[in-house]
Amino acid sequence: MLMYRQKDKNRNCNAMTVEEFPSHIQNLLKQMREKEESDRLAKEKENDMFKLKVYCNLPITNHLKDVKVFPFYDNTLAETASEIYEKLDLKGTVSLEDCRLVTYNKIQDCIECSFDRDDYKFCDTPVKDYIHHSDWYLEIRKSGVPFEVYKSGGIKIKVYMVNIENEEVQGPLSMRINPGETVREVKARLITFLPAMNIEIENLKLVLEVYNESTHLDEDDVPIKFDSNCTNYKLYVSSVTETDENDKQYIFTKMHKVIDRFVHIVNIDIILPDNDIGTLESLSIPPLDFNQNIDRIEMGSGDRVSNSPSLRVSPQPNNVIEGFGDQSNSEDSSLSDSDRTLIGDAPGDCIGILSSSSNSPADQHMASPSDPAEDSYNDEVFGNPPEEMNWDDDTNHSQNYYFKVISVTTQNKDSIADQDCTRFCRVMVDKRLTIGNLKKHLETVVGVSTQYFKIYQYPNQDVELTDMNKDLNTMKDSDKLLVKLGRVLKKNEMSGRIFQLKPDSTEPFTYLFDYIIAKGQTVASAKKDILLQAKKQHMIDIPYSKCRLRKKNWKNPAKIYLDCQKFSDDIQITNKFEMILQDLGEEERLTKPTQMAIFVKRWCPETLTLTPFHEIVLDNSCMNELKKKLSEESGIPENYLDMAFIKSPFPCDMNILDVQNDLDWISTINQLDTYLLQGRDDGSVFFYRDRRESMKELTPEEKKEINQRENARLGRHSTKTFSPNRRERGLKIYLDNLPKKTDDSVAD
């Protein structure tokens, strides 16, 4: 809009002052100036605000969650902790006094530094210079327990308890070591974590190991040296009584042997599927016969696990040493979810494949013939001389590697983030163990035979570990694997997904289940089995003669499979195929491979409606035959019947206001149109109409209402409220005092 005024000194010479404004305008002016001042102050204060990402392990679910807050530099740690406390809705679960804000190392998953006062302002903290690059953590302690002190530069290490007598290792648990902390101080902390074991501080022996190098921590007053950037430290702890220097040397020699054999051991968390009777029956998976499983393992590859007496016993309670490690809730908060499984109040059951309650060193021995531990071989314990043992070497594939189930836990679905996973298992395993042997050991935990479950990487659940001879060398501590129920593929078998087709639904494809097809299998036998599975798993009861199987090509139903055809012979099929189960509601009409089935809908412009889908079966891929059959079924004469081929993905839904004019309607089939169906699979979609019907007359209000309704139905959102074709033009102003053009100039 163009605004202008006329200059008139006689009328505009005396401007109105603020004092001459009416009272209501003076009040409005005062409010405007106050708002401007408050906005200016808010803008200046906003410049002093910064973004903070804060993590917290939720008390109930143990799930690590992060929130973003925007404090000011002059806010205190206590004020920001209170804001995060409210954002996480922790009221009623924990007390605000039991929460504090600390810096956090997300990569190492540990608290980096704590502060001795909560009234610290962010601008006064030691990390003020790099506060924007720091992660923070809301630490929650147990009520009545003092907060732990975390000094900058400390590390989190894995702690293992070593039993010298039977060469047994338990753990790991996580523990924090601060810079400058002496061996005696670490021992004192370990004593407080194990009050029920009556361990004397003088009897504790510590060995720090990193990158296969071990260091004796035998001088109590010497600070422990470590690299704060390294995350692979392991602390081995043993409690033994020594009488002289020879005993001391013997103890450390024994610990070294255990550590050397333990160098390949990792702790892996395995997510287990539900194995209740209902789930197994729905998947047609028989439960594991434990007696048959024991016999098969004992007659198998000679794995040392088969000689463990614990295979023949029922699951025993978890015998992991509770409380071993940093038991304060402050350090608990920095543990990963897998570590928390060991420290929690309900560790669940423990299945000891190599039972830690066994006194036999055979259960824990992991050495090869070249290992120094061979010197300590005991014929009475092992029962065979060492040269007759099945040791692992380059030519012998009989795997005798270590495997032990530490704990199996079941959690309530309401208490975990991923509600599809309720069973978890932690295993201690040698990285040289193959996937095939790992599956054998997991049979008793999963509850089904190895041929009925698969192992996947986690969280990348699409990558299945199919190479049974591949080892676990790429696994690290606390890595996760996912177990899914389902039969393992045999030779000439392919796995895929089965969908149900509902043509008139907005979501026409409903996933049913995975299915395995063998090369040479007939479509008839596959259809019978699929119908049985659909009835058993989803209560879908379809008669055999009133359904069909067809190919699913991306978002479209495609080629129809005939009962007499065979997969791989007549039908080319690959692994991870997708197939459709279609309910016809009538007897199958397509019986020859040369026939074609077409989806059609009738457009009724007088009522602005489309009829539901129905199929037309053609003997030949000919447009003239399609037009003739549509004319017979609809009663529309051929010379008044128009057809339109729909190119959009199935179910080809569109705005009903666009059907009449936006489609390419075919009235007369020319030479080019005759080839429209040739080379296409079943499942093409056509609309047809009676050309004699006229479009319903709509008022602008009706058209707008229908358009809004259609956009909402199709998930579209239109914000247009004006016509884009209208253009604004500039306003021209002509003044009378400009010199007029003379006739001569015009003539020129």
Describe the 3D structure.
With 748 residues, the chain is α+β, with helices and mostly antiparallel strands. It has 5 domains: 89 residues, Ubiquitin-like (UB roll) (Roll); 107 residues, Ubiquitin-like (UB roll) (Roll); 155 residues, Phosphatidylinositol 3-kinase Catalytic Subunit, Chain A, domain 1 (Ubiquitin-like (UB roll), Roll); 91 residues, Ubiquitin-like (UB roll); 95 residues, Ubiquitin-like (UB roll), CATH 3.10.20.90. 22% of the residues lie in helices and 23% in strands. The strands form 6 sheets. A 5-stranded mixed beta sheet has the order 2-1-5-3-4. The chain is flat and about 110 Å long. The C terminus is likely disordered. InterPro entries: Ubiquitin-like_dom, USP47_C. It holds the Pfam family USP47_C.
Write the layout of secondary structure elements.
Elements: H1 9-12, H2 23-47, E1 52-57, E2 64-69, H3 77-87, E3 99-105, E4 110-113, E5 135-140, E6 155-163, E7 168-177, H4 183-193, E8 204-210, E9 213-216, E10 234-239, H5 245-261, E11 265-272, H6 277-282, H7 290-298, E12 316-317, H8 329-332, H9 337-343, E13 349-350, H10 379-382, E14 403-410, E15 423-430, H11 435-446, E16 453-457, E17 479-485, E18 493-501, E19 509-518, H12 523-538, E20 547-553, E21 556-561, E22 577-583, E23 596-604, E24 609-610, E25 614-618, H13 623-634, E26 641-646, H14 656-662, E27 685-690, H15 700-714, H16 743-747
Parallel strand pairs: 1-5, 6-10, 11-17, 18-22, 23-27
Antiparallel strand pairs: 1-2, 3-4, 3-5, 6-7, 8-9, 8-10, 11-15, 12-13, 14-15, 16-17, 18-19, 20-21, 20-22, 23-24, 23-25, 26-27
